[in-house]
Amino acid sequence: MIPREYITELVQRSDIADVVQSYVQLRARGRTYTGLCPFHNEKTPSFVVYPESQSFYCFGCGAGGDVITFIKKLNNVDYVEAVKTLAARAGMPQPEEDDQTGRLRARILSANKDAARFFFASLNSDAGRAARGYWRGRGLTDATIRHFGLGYAPDSFSAARDHLKRLGYNEEELIAAGLVRRSEKGGTYDFFRNRMMIPIFDLRGNVIAFSGRKIDPEQRGGKYVNSPETLVYKKSRTLFALNFAKSSQTRRYIMCEGNLDAISLHQAGFTTAVAGCGTALTEEHVRLLGQYAEELVLCYDSDEAGQKATRRAIELLAASPIRVSVLNIPDAKDPDEFLKKFGAERFARLLDGSAGAVVYELSLAKSRRDLSTPDGRTAYLRDAIGVLAGKLTPVERDVYAGRLAEETNVEKSAILTQLNAAVRAQARRAAKEREQRLLEEGLGRGSRLPQTPGNGQTQYIAFAERQLVAAIIKNPAFLRQAAPRLQGVQFFDAGMGEAFALLCEKDARGEPIDLAALSGELPEETLARVSQVLAQNYDIGISAQDVEMYLTRIENSRPVSASAGERSAGELAAYIQSLKEKKA
């Protein structure tokens, strides 16, 4: 565990508004800051930072917590890694920890770095002659090969394993890194063999995975072999070359289908090219891109699979503030081939002329119908209205309705009537889906409580429990008033009960009482709900009389266990553990 004194100093040095502003464009609103939430797609800001409580909360998706939680969620890392990230930012020494998972993560990153060096050295050895020929045959310069750390995995079952073991790594660490696999007979062997190696980096420049492309078309196995997911690598949250692209001055990003396309584009000067890592675009990718890109040009292959990927990406990006356009690549199957045939200047002109997502979808819908027949025109209009009923402005819908009228010889007024009806129907569906989602997530009521015959009264008591926790975090002196009177009381809202018990334990040990005291020890969902309560009370003064009212309400709600007695810090810790086990 990281010492509490270290966490306290780290939080004091890491003002949440300054940290969040490094990733999210914030606007001051009185004593708070607002911006677009980095954890879900939205066009209207619902993400709020509260400097006074050093917390954040999103009223759209329910994410909340302190500055450590923010870094943890944003970078998809655990608590310890988030602390290390903030420590590096604050100029503090890395924390000393006794954490098995943290140590293994560090060993995996170190093994990946040494493996990347081994593959690069192998590329430049006699054994790597064919691989060097391949990279150069793809038109890559030595500078590009060095920049991306491209390499070669020797045609051996043990070369990488033996090299890494000589550096001090054990087999379990290499298996955890995805570099080595265990055979059915119990032995181990190299996962990557006789393949061109492409390292995959995280945003901090750590090697987190590899993609291996086969050299010989007759070689067994797929065209690409990719690292399995590990403690440090989640493909749905990783974009190839984003670590390089994020340093670019332009905010127009290019989304490619393959990593070699991205590498070729970078070499040609298009340094915002990124690619997925063996998976289609995900919501996590969209949120990640939203931190850097204002426009995303979809640059997938022109085959059926590429068109399917394009349509899927447009759907995902519809709820994002990122502008979307689609690049049609003529006379070439992918960007790499186009660059080789026509050069970077032609590709730049192609980019500038890329069509918007709506134009692309309408063109696709039109290509599937025969507009020379009444049935074909009707079907095309039905498809087109489905496209235009999305998130367009009334002016945009009017313009496209005019285009449809010219294409189909149907009155524009009739098209607008159908289109407006579709917009209203879509709004009703969206509202109903949101209401259902809030009900399922429990955000509509603010807590998840057991359904009992007296549930209305339960909600009444749970409100007092939540307000009490907020009051204590805002003014720790209230804990002296509350702790003796709530010995043995089981909270209706189990999450707030866990938070209250943890606050009592911290106070008994003389530790600070604030949101950071709960971070890392409460489940993420519970911490988010505590942040929600703080957000709801940020400009409300809670007096001693208010706290007295909350305590009376809680005390009168049910009898106190006669055997509870006065709890020590150890007993409180046991109580917290029992709550966690019950939740699990």
Q: What features would you describe in this structure?
A:
This protein is of the alpha+beta class. It has 25 helices and 16 strands. The strands form four sheets. The protein has a five-stranded antiparallel β-sheet with strand order 1-2-3-4-5. Helix 21 runs antiparallel to helix 25. The longest helix is centred in the last third of the chain and has 30 residues. It is flat, with a radius of gyration of 28 Å. The chain starts with a helix and ends with a helix. About 4% of the residues have low confidence.
What topology emerges from the helices and strands here?
Elements: H1 4-13, H2 16-21, E1 27-29, E2 32-35, E3 47-50, E4 55-58, E5 64-65, H3 67-75, H4 79-90, H5 100-123, H6 129-137, H7 142-148, E6 151-153, H8 159-166, H9 171-176, E7 180-182, E8 188-190, E9 195-201, E10 207-214, E11 224-226, H10 242-245, E12 252-256, H11 259-267, E13 273-275, H12 283-290, E14 295-299, H13 304-317, E15 323-326, H14 335-352, E16 355-356, H15 357-367, H16 374-388, H17 394-408, H18 412-441, H19 455-474, H20 478-482, H21 494-508, H22 515-518, H23 524-536, H24 544-555, H25 569-583
Parallel strand pairs: 12-13, 12-14, 14-15
Antiparallel strand pairs: 1-2, 2-3, 3-4, 4-5, 6-9, 7-8, 9-10, 10-11, 15-16
Helix pairs in contact: 3-4, 11-14, 15-16, 16-17, 16-18, 17-18, 19-21, 19-24, 21-25
Mean pLDDT: 85
* Count of DSSP strands: 16
What is the helix content?
40-55%
Number of helices: 25
Distance between the termini: 22 Å
Please outline the major beta sheet: 5 strands, antiparallel
Quick description:
Helix content is 51%, strand content 11%.
